[in-house]
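Shall we go through a protein fold together, starting from nothing but its sequence? Label the sequence line and the structure token line clearly, so we can match residues to local backbone shapes. Would you write everything just below, so we can both look at the same thing?
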Amino acid sequence: MADKIKLFVNGVEVEVESGKNLIDAIGAVGIEIPHLCYHPALGADGNCRMCLVGIEDGRPPLVPACKTPAQEGMKVLLDAEHIKKIQHDVLEFELINHPTDCPVCDQAGECKLQDYYMSYDQAESRMTVPQVTKGKKMDFGGGVIHDQERCVLCGRCVRFCREITNTGELGIINRTDAARVNFFPGRPLANRYALNVVDLCPVGAMTSVDFRFKQRVWFMKKAPGICHGCSKGCNITIDHNREKYKDDVIYRYRPVFNEQVNGYFMCDEGRLSYKKENDQRLVDARLANKSKSIDDVLTSCVKEIERADKIAIVLSPNCSLEQIVTVKALSDKLGAFLSGYSEGYLKKGDGDDYLIQDDKSANRAGLTLLGVDCSKEGFENAVKESDLLINFNNDLILSYKESDLTKLLKGTKIVAITTHDNRCTSMADMAIPVASYSEYSGTVINCDNILQHFGKAITKNEDLADICEIAGQLGSPLQNDEQRFS
């Protein structure tokens, strides 16, 4: 546990963590020091001067909080008149050439300059000369659009590309009113984490092509979640909105800080994987490729299970621990062979040494923990010997050529219990739609063997049952979480 020290903020004694700078140390006890250029993952740059604070009896008496370590007995002044004037003057300087078009800015509602103006300034502009004009809607590559006129030159995006991705596409060129953030000639953003500069930007200068002008942030609801794009399991915020008379729709994923998992960032592929939660969803149950009620299809499934001499069950490596346990209990009851074969979810060589993993599934470690056979040989032998295959959301098309899969499954009845309407689903004799990971709560284990729980984020107009419930209706003895965790 970190050592604690005591210091004074505006004359009030507070206990903070030793070794941190004043922004982080004092911020941890709920006292904000305004800042634009500082970010915990990028370190102190000290260029915005918004975080200047007074140190009573200190030498020097004024210091940037981002570069000043908290010390025992330090007397920090935040509400003194000369500190307020500094904050006011810095904001006025930042706003000299900043467009006052908040109603049409994509960052409105999430803009630190907007927040700080309301907290520390609220003064009318004294400018009597035309503003310096800068570029708009500049394509920086990597799905990033830059509005140069809104940039406050905090340098966060530049430091991210130099210190985190080590690609160095961005720089600040020229000086004074001519200073601009730009990419080097012929080298636009091309790294796999480029959209993190949108999150890092404290104003509306960096925007996402994908999200730009799609939604107002104050209309959206925010829910925590776990990205299922790969086995890293980055912590995310799921931003979604249900418009009047319409269904709930996800509009973006954003990373949430987790020091043990993803830090402050996430990859672009995972960030854009929200689209899979909205698109090509299976919403109606099918029997022989004809829409039927879920109850009718479930009844047919139960009859097929009763008639079958031998059954094989295959699980997706994206299934939660709760779902795996429930289906395993069903498999044991039916005397079926349970497989987690999912070689197609592995993309060898695609991962890097930062966040991206070769394994594009969320819970393969859960299959291993619970002793589920994941071998190709075991799966194929079981299918060949079975007259019924129950597929719990495993996209086998990823692991096989369609012709090879058709040959393997020939003569086998197929029940697809799945989230998406894809080619694998269309091959099934019976298909039952189920909730996807943003629509139920569960637990997964990531590539570093870290157990993570995620809650239900999305509520549809007509909620679908999750795999646990469907497995229960097919005969699994585990009918609730109490039984699953006992």
